[in-house]
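Good morning,

Both structures are done.
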Amino acid sequence: MLARRTLLLTLLALTLMSGACRRAEPPAARETRLVVFAAASLREVFTNLGRQFEAAHPGVTLSFNFAGTQELRAQVEHGAVVDVFASADQRHMQELVRAERVTQPVVFARNEPVIVVSREAAGRVRSLAELPEAARIVLGAPEVPIGRYGLQIFERARATLGADFPARIEAKVVSRELNVRQVLTKVSLGEAEAGLVYRTDALAAGEGVTVVTLPPALNVVADYPIAVVMGAPQPELARSWVDFVRSPEGQRALRGAGFVPVSTDAAP
């Protein structure tokens, strides 16, 4: 009987000690999530910058949503929980400014459209003037920044390439995509012979496509603005991300990806 009582007391003591040890353990650190909506053309460079940002901010995880700028704008307008929005054009960002959905944006990079040509059509499409020679052309939809830029470029080309130049291109268009990466994919896979994308996208495709540079007099410059979203769950971290993208380190990464960096001294 005495041995049994001693055993029970020992087990009880061990149980109490175990509970005390568990109570003494420090609470697990909570993960903080920063949600960034960004134009599809920013996928590679923002993903790489995100790893650097996480390394400098232990406990912070970046969650990216890459898509067409117009899709992301619609999600923000409908109340998506997001901290930062980076756009491939000023138009959609300014609509969010007018709707008081974002704080004052700043331009952090610039890009330029180029023509990408599939391997089978590389010998036929070597300039903007030869673009109508492609049997199948894929462009961005008119509401997509790259689609709207294309319309502007083709309209400008009327003066030198003929009043019917836009119509000649339109006759060869087989699809209009909802983001620039879908345009690039169709040309890379040979589903289309030519398309209009950003220079950064063409660089990401490597040797899968041939790049045709557009005449500077006809081309457009794509401004990329970034802003903290009103009501962001992580406003301080959001501002830190914007500052990081605009920092010398962020600008070097953007330059390496083919973007034209923007001096922070010139930004508002």
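Second structure follows.
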Amino acid sequence: MTERDLLDRATARLPDFAPTGETMRLPGGLLNEVWRVNGRAQSTPSSLVAKHAPPHIASQPEVPLDPERVAFEARALRAFAPGGALADLATEATRPPRPLDYDAATHTLLMEDLGTPPALGAWLRGGPPAQDAQAVGKRLGRFVGRLHARTRGDDALREAFDNRAMQETRHAVQYRAVGELCEAGGAPDAEALGARAEAMGKRFIEPGDCLVMGDLWPPSVLLREPSGSALRLIDWELCHYGRPAQDVAHLAAHLWMHAHRAPSREACTAAEAAQRAFLDAYRDALGEAAATLLTPQALADCAVHFGAEILVRAVGPFQAGYLYDGLAPDASPVRTATRVAAGHLREPEAQETFAALAP
């Protein structure tokens, strides 16, 4: 999609929005093409964000990817918007951006412009006060726990959010690569660890227990206030009626990595505080749903996903541009990360990481 196409689309889909011709390609868009569009409007904001999903990974055109992914994001944003099925879960303290329009023909989503607040990762690396990091973790845990509890066993959502294509891609890129990544990290039982992750990935392709955000990592969490008292959760194209591990263990893995690679003692303490508060608040927010969502299998899945996510970031295809960027497999930080990841894959029931979630 060209810039001219984008301006024409915004004008056609939002009649009272008049683009000024000023657009800005936003950084960080790996899967999609994302712009900020400035303009003049009456009932809509004076600027908006446009996300277009091409039929491939935007940053890797040679890799095909289902463009329907953005339709799932639009569906999720509408569910959280006023009048939507999940509107009561979205507060000014924690919510996704507001949707403005979705054009299914061009796979283009227009939504609220949140400005340029810092993402969670950059904020944590600045070494915020531990109590602020704890409050952010608690806020995230409460939101995700309420989302999982509220959507558990909902047949309508199970059908609407059967995001199978993205789960198949996730299985191929992440879970199926675990054995090879463990071997690169020197694990003697790499084949067995890979088989465990691949088996879980196959299960995760099918609809599961509740609606999950699917991409809950630091770049998807924006802090609207310096203290973290207002959060916005962006990038819902991986949302799926799936398993809690893909939210809970995903963020836990990234907070562990931020603590491990923290540039200061304060940053390490903040990341650890956020992780503890997130897991505690998540379990509390589940309430009675914990009995069915936090089964022994679910806790083991959390450990396996935790290990798989660390591997793809520390020694795998998503190392570039992240916390282990440029480090060789035999570098000390990478060896530590792969050892921790392999331990979670090898003995998922014996790990203390998710002890706060156990009955």
